[in-house]
């Protein structure tokens, strides 16, 4: 499998992940295609002229994704802060440590909107000569902050639960505690669905992780009902025990969120996406073989670097046309792919090593 080649073409375009944009380059869509002298001249000009598919449509698509993310964060922040405020008042009146843990968890979940909002704002900035891929990675950094906040809420909830086990205290206003627990569940479940749905639509791992966090918060809110029920039946120890169970639940959320962010930081992608990209490339006319396929997430956009092998006797113009068609199909058929770099290598003749110059530089 070839690694890279100093002479073949590297073909890179940035695209919106839309199906309705126009290609105003006049290039062909397959090798050997002849449309007269005028068409050939256009193809030659296209092959040797710097060009990009970066367009207003692509920018609008990226901005729309970030705008949707910002709307989700604003609405969910307001709902969770209101829920936490109501619960905090009842915590003071009741002394329920289980409800305190749930309140702290809801507060932490609301505050995760802050780093995410900053990340989405940064992601709107254009790429620079220093940050050549843009600022999409800010979302992954926000994910780290989210993981730290979840860990902090787990530690505080666990501390309060253990302290209450060692220093038992009666729980008051059990009816209000139960009502606050139900309100916490409803608020968190609504926020979870909203975040997860939009996060998956725009490809934001941090927003999906935050939605899963909110969903678990909802179930921990229901657990508070168990503590209130136990206390009502004459078992005051049920409240701190439920507080400990909530802490354990938060730790499971912490594990899942940390794994999600770790995968994103390590450029992990779903292997099914790689399989799909290889399938798409193999169907392009003129592609003799598919080489390496590399995918990575940058924020909530997917980027690709692929290698294809074409007939060694093919002209530069025709090889370029194959690369254009390969990139075009990837952009249109691979979900959330916004940019692709297509590298063409010569296929054949038998025994030829087109990368001999780079043999000592390859990383095994």
TrEMBL record:
Subcellular localization(s) per the UniProt record: Membrane
Record field: compositional bias (Basic and acidic residues): 15-34
Annotated Cation efflux protein transmembrane domain residues: 74-266
Keywords recorded for this protein, A-Z: Membrane, Transmembrane, Transmembrane helix, Transport
Major localisation: membrane
Protein topology in the membrane: Multi-pass membrane protein
Residue ranges of the TM segments: 72-97, 141-161, 173-191, 212-235
NCBIfam families (UniProt xref): CDF
Family assignment from sequence similarity: Belongs to the cation diffusion facilitator (CDF) transporter (TC 2.A.4) family.
Stated name of the protein: Cation diffusion facilitator family transporter
């Amino acid at each position: 499998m070839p690694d890279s080649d100093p002479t073949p073409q590297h073909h890179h375009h940035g695209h919106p992940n839309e199906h309705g944009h126009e290609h105003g380059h006049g290039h062909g869509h397959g090798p050997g295609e002849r449309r007269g002298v005028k068409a050939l001249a256009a193809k030659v000009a296209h092959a040797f002229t710097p060009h990009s598919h970066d367009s207003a449509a692509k920018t609008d698509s990226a901005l729309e994704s970030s705008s949707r993310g910002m709307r989700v964060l604003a609405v969910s922040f307001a709902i969770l802060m209101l829920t936490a405020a109501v619960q905090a008042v009842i915590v003071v009146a009741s002394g329920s440590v289980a409800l305190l843990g749930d309140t702290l968890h809801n507060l932490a979940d609301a505050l995760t909107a802050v780093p995410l909002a900053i990340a989405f704002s940064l992601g709107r900035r254009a790429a620079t000569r220093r940050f050549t891929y843009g600022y999409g990675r800010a979302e992954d950094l926000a994910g780290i902050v989210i993981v730290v906040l979840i860990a902090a809420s787990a530690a505080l909830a666990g501390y309060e639960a253990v302290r209450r086990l060692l220093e038992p205290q009666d729980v008051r206003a059990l009816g209000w505690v139960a009502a606050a627990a139900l309100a916490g569940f409803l608020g968190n479940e609504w926020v979870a669905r909203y975040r997860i749905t939009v996060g998956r639509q725009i490809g934001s791992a941090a927003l999906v992780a935050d939605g899963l966090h909110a969903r678990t918060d909802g179930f921990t809110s229901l657990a508070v009902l168990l503590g209130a029920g136990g206390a009502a039946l004459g078992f005051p120890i049920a409240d701190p025990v439920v507080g400990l169970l909530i802490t354990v639940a938060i730790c499971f959320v912490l594990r899942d969120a940390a794994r999600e962010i770790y995968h994103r930081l390590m450029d992990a992608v779903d292997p099914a996406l790689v399989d799909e990209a290889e399938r798409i490339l193999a169907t392009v006319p003129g592609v003799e073989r598919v080489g390496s396929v590399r995918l990575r997430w940058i924020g909530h956009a997917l980027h690709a670097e692929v290698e294809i092998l074409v007939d060694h006797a093919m002209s530069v113009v025709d090889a370029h046309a194959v690369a254009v068609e390969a990139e075009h199909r990837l952009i249109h058929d691979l979900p959330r792919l916004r940019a692709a770099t297509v590298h063409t290598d010569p296929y054949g003749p038998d025994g030829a090593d087109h990368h001999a110059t780079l043999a000592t530089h390859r990383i095994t």
